[in-house]
Amino acid sequence: GAVVSQHPSWVICKSGTSVKIECRSLDFQATTMFWYRQFPKQSLMLMATSNEGSKATYEQGVEKDKFLINHASLTLSTLTVTSAHPEDSSFYICSSIRGSDGYTFGSGTRLTVV
Amino acid sequence: TQLLEQSPQFLSIQEGENLTVYCNSSSVFSSLQWYRQEPGEGPVLLVTVVTGGEVKKLKRLTFQFGDARKDSSLHITAAQPGDTGLYLCAGEPSSASKIIFGSGTRLSIRP
Fold first, then answer.
1. pLDDT digits 0-9 by tens, A14-44
2. Best A34, A37, A44, A111 residue to mutate vs chain B (most B CBs within 10 Å)
């Protein structure tokens, strides 16, 4: 089945710094990728849809200037959390679609802002 | 905004018992998926249903899509401790290629 690789699996950063999370499609070309955020004991909330070669589409309430998404190639999308604060600490998960395999998810990135 | 409400939110039962998890919405979905997620990992797809009234079975798990494609259920027969986890339904709206997750059901099976 389709594989989506996410890196890093966990990161700790200081408040005010920026953190980049990568999402790669390993065996298929992904024109669209999705970024989700999951707080403890909660479900996944869609943040944005990343489109290769064009601007990302953000869900209502998600700050596009804080969560920068770049999808410069058919196999890589990145999410940069800018000027991170402790309330941004969360589990970030990417996903993509591959034909009959449907939606496939990365293993997630645990971000802790101290 | 399409919302998917799952019930119950939490369920703790004894090994061997049966259970049903519900996923309800006022919106119509072109397809609906069920996932299971372990702590610190991404969700893993269990099943996709696309036709109203469709029933799919996966060993002891039975999934049903409502006739109007607005709701779904997951029934587990003879639950085992290995079934413990977070179960998530997710719907793909008819108007967009993305999926929206339900509120989740945390299941705990006691040996």
1. 999 999 999 999 988 999 999 999 999 899 9
2. A44
